[in-house]
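Design job #97: recover the sequence.
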């Protein structure tokens, strides 16, 4: 089955949400053969002997994939073994999620009544803070700040 892909290079962390990809060939899709029909781990055959990219987008699937491995085969073809990039494929859905965060570096976004089992509790109602880096526990100024709330 013929399928269109865009191919590019990616040099950042796999767990990043906003990936910066350099799309090769101006992002123009090329056709290749889908060897299996897995949406999470597709295997593709393309007419190229040696590939110099590590990231693709399968246009028909609307998903992006890491190229986990490649193998050259006879006839000047390559087999690409890919794995879905869940964070970037579903980026808009992830960014729209509402969730409760236990730990946050921004002192203005923590919840006063949350219990955090990682920080030791005592029998009085107190705020336990831990300084990291240049932060000031009294003012909350600084980039590296962790706050835990324990309610008694």
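Job complete. Output follows.
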């Amino acid at each position: 089955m013929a399928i269109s892909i865009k191919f590019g290079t990616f040099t950042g962390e796999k767990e990043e949400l906003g990936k910066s990809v350099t799309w090769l060939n101006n992002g123009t899709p090329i056709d290749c053969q889908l060897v299996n029909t897995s949406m999470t781990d597709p295997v593709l055959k393309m007419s190229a002997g040696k590939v110099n990219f590590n990231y693709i987008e399968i246009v028909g699937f609307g998903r992006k994939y890491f190229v986990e491995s490649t193998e050259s085969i006879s006839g000047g073809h390559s087999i690409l073994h890919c794995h879905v990039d869940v964070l970037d494929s579903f980026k808009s859905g992830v960014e729209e999620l509402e969730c409760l965060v236990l730990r946050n570096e921004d002192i203005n976004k923590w919840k006063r009544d949350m219990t955090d089992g990682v920080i030791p509790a005592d029998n009085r109602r107190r705020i336990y803070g831990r300084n990291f880096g240049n932060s000031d526990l009294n003012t909350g100024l600084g980039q590296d700040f962790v706050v835990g709330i324990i309610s008694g």
